[in-house]
Design a protein that fits this description.
Elements: H1 17-50, H2 69-102, H3 107-123, H4 131-145
Protein name: ABC transporter permease
Organism: Streptomyces endophytica
Amino acid sequence: MAVRPGTGGARAAAVSRTADAASTGTALRELTAAVRTLRDQLRLRLQGADGGRGEPGRGDPAGSSGGRGLEELETLEEFEALEELEVLEAELAGHIADFERTSRVRRAELSRLRAELESAISAAAPGERGAGAADAAGVVRDLSRRLAP
């Protein structure tokens, strides 16, 4: 490799704006798909735990809740995490639409979104979920780290 005088040696190649934009777009699409998969896995787990009746504490006949206790509370927290994942999935879809239109993304919003994804994953009790949901949560974590500025 020839080195021009005065450059101080060979320089590492910089990432072009186009490559950075393509990488960001790919990460957004993959992250959206991973969040969708995690949401589906969590929904399936909750339907199995609930016997397909619906959400706990919502629409139950009066007096039927009896003494459900801790298990009911954990399931309710998982439903709330599921709802949060649905909101984040919609927000990611909005970011993708904006990105496809403008080829730009606001890094501050991505940092906030990443923090909210981490919170939603933690709220869904990773140790309590089935293997499919745990794998999906790991993929979401890995992909969300690619969005960091």
